[in-house]
Amino acid sequence: MRLRSVLLAASLATILTAPAHAASDYKKLDAEIDRLIVAGKIPGLAMAVIDNGKVAHVVAKGVRNEKGDPLTTDTIMYAASITKMTFAYYVLMLVDDGTIDLDKSIADYLPKPLPAYPRYADLGVDERWKTITIRRLLTHSSGLADQRFYDPENKFRFNLEPGSRYAYSNEGVNLAQFVIEESLGIKVGDEMNRRIFQPLGMTRSSMIWRDDFKGNLADGIREDGKWEPHDDRSSVRAAGSLDTTISDMSKLAAAMVSGWGLSAKARAELDKPSFPIVSEAQFPPFLIKDNPANAKIGLAAGIGVVVYDGPQGRAFFKGGHNDITDNHVGCVEKGKRCVVLFSNSGLGQRLYPTLAKEVLGDLGTPWPWEYNRQLPVAAQ
């Protein structure tokens, strides 16, 4: 155990040591962000660059609220579904521990049948819940509804046959959290803080709201131009309760692309094609419309991320969106390079293909699948 702690500390020191880069290159990139946020009518944008598995550059531009307070690298921003990627990385640590098997039925972990729990009683006698595994939950292949509040009767149910196709499910990821907490007797938020946030120095990241976030907090702007306050999430939700900063998220991206804290076997699960994605677009998740071109790039679900083979080889990404948030983490295995993009507008996507290409070159990222439409070219 002591040896492992020493090795983790050594690898962490390597991850957080920035390589030598030409300062002029990043000055040009920062100037381009200044131009693009004006052209794209985006209030604030934060970006981090990872090179060779190390944090190379972190910057924040624009404003964080209606008053015009500046967005900084330490401003608290809502991670949205980037939470899922972060949670999945924690789950892989449990796989390394031997306490979770990605391919065992959740029935092997729960003390009683899933429908016996009030939150999941809607399943009734539907025995298909026994076919659910943690892998299926984290690869969105469980067949479970996305959000129960989308259901006409506000019920938790299967929308598809389990294991039949990729269909985004927030409910499924939250169920993975429930199974882990029930079976291991832990609190996921506390454990993620202990095993990921604290060791990586992510001091302004939390799966639940903290009052000390108030002093430097990003509100968001809707497409109609109206500002909306940051939502203070009062409970831990693996599908989307993480608050963080671009500075903190840069450390996590560097750790993930480097495999920090994981065995080689567990790290390989992260961006292994666990389940093929045949859908034309990510949303709406239960629109059964396929795109044969997905197979050409091997588009598939990894553990908490989406993976594909592009012009530069194996790459993975995860997005996070709502009406006032648009986030993207994209990484390529070759050179252990990533770009992290956070915006306090749902329209950050207007800029992301341009900025991602500027940082990483052409990765062949399937932007239309991620956003359910072909994204516009940033203003020239």
Helix/strand layout:
Layout: H1 2-15, H2 23-39, E1 44-51, E2 54-62, E3 77-78, H3 82-97, H4 134-138, H5 170-184, H6 188-200, E4 220-221, E5 227-228, E6 243-244, H7 246-258, H8 264-270, E7 275-276, E8 300-301, E9 306-310, E10 313-322, E11 325-332, E12 337-343, H9 352-360, H10 367-371
Antiparallel strand pairs: 1-2, 1-12, 3-6, 4-5, 7-8, 8-9, 9-10, 10-11, 11-12
Task: Tell me what you see in this structure.
With 380 residues, this protein is α+β, with helices and mostly antiparallel strands. It has a single domain (2-371), classed as 3-Layer(aba) Sandwich (Beta-lactamase). The chain is 30% helix and 16% strand. It contains ten helices and twelve strands. It has helices at 2-15, 23-39, 82-97, 134-138, 170-184, 188-200, 246-258, 264-270, 352-360, 367-371; strands at 44-51, 54-62, 77-78, 220-221, 227-228, 243-244, 275-276, 300-301, 306-310, 313-322, 325-332, 337-343. The chain has an eight-stranded antiparallel beta sheet, with helices on both faces. The protein has a two-stranded antiparallel sheet with strand order 3-6. α3 runs antiparallel to α8. 46% of the residues are buried.
CATH topology (level 3) name: Beta-lactamase
Counted up, domains total: 1
Along the chain, the helix and strand elements come as HHEEEHHHHEEEHHEEEEEEHH
Percent of sequence in beta strands: 15-25%
CATH architecture: 3-Layer(aba) Sandwich
CATH class: Alpha Beta
What Rg is obtained from the alpha carbons, in whole angstroms? 20 Å
What strand order characterises the main sheet? 2-1-12-11-10-9-8-7
Biggest sheet details: 8 strands, antiparallel
Instruction: Report the end-to-end length measured between terminal Cα atoms.
Output: 54 Å
Helix content: 25-40%
- Which overall shape is indicated by the principal axes computed on the Cα atoms? globular
